[in-house]
Task: inverse folding
């Protein structure tokens, strides 16, 4: 079956521009996560959506970062006024309700963001 | 705050050598523990997990990990590596009672296996 799909796969932007990254989770998965993978930093949690509950935004590094999830499916991560330190691979993951509380997540291929 | 430490950043081995990758976490409560793997050009995927019970857990491709509560460790092992094990390995934890399923990852260990 189809996995987690992210677009674009690569994004090059200029400092100060806004970018939108898209994630299509696996159909039927209720939970959706965004992580950031920077060189030498591992994977850093950004935000978590679970069904209709309020999202856990505790990992967003600044107010330039925001995310929404429409209709319980597709999610968009928006970075406003991008900075060079935002350059990273942004990973999206999803999980079904049956795996809730178990930390088992299915990852997409990521979007590589380069801010010049 | 929870954190995960992986002390080996880059490991280079020959085929058939034994592997042990270290992982320590800092969290006093009940946690679930994971190893995820990212093979070249592929998505991050679950290798193995520990929730409770037998502290020695077995995953795919001959990998195993041992949870030692007193040491806050969850080291990954494989008795004999293969070239196809070349990948990046991430240790992760989550706190299931914390109201969120977010994973806290270590910085990863890049494993290169030469034939």
Result:
């Amino acid at each position: 079956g189809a996995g987690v799909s992210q677009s674009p796969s690569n994004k090059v932007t200029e400092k100060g521009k806004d970018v939108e990254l898209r994630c299509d989770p696996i159909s039927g998965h209720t939970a959706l996560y965004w992580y950031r993978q920077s060189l030498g930093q591992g994977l850093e949690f950004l935000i978590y959506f679970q069904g209709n509950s309020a999202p856990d935004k505790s990992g967003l590094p600044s107010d330039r970062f925001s995310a929404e999830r429409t209709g319980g499916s597709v999610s968009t991560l928006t970075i406003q006024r991008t900075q060079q330190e935002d350059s990273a691979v942004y990973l999206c993951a999803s999980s079904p309700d049956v795996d809730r509380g178990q930390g088992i997540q299915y990852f997409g291929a990521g979007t590589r963001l380069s801010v010049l | 705050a929870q954190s995960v430490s992986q002390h080996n950043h880059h490991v280079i081995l020959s085929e058939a050598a034994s592997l042990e990758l270290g992982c320590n976490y800092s969290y006093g409560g009940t946690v679930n523990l994971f190893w995820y793997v990212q093979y070249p050009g592929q998505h991050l995927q679950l290798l193995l997990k520990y929730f409770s019970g037998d502290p020695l857990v077995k995953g795919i491709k001959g990998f195993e990990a041992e949870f030692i509560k007193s040491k806050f460790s969850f080291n990954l092992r494989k008795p004999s590596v293969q070239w196809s094990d070349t990948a990046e390995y991430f240790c992760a934890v989550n706190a299931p009672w914390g109201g969120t399923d977010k994973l806290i990852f270590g910085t990863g260990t890049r494993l290169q296996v030469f034939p």
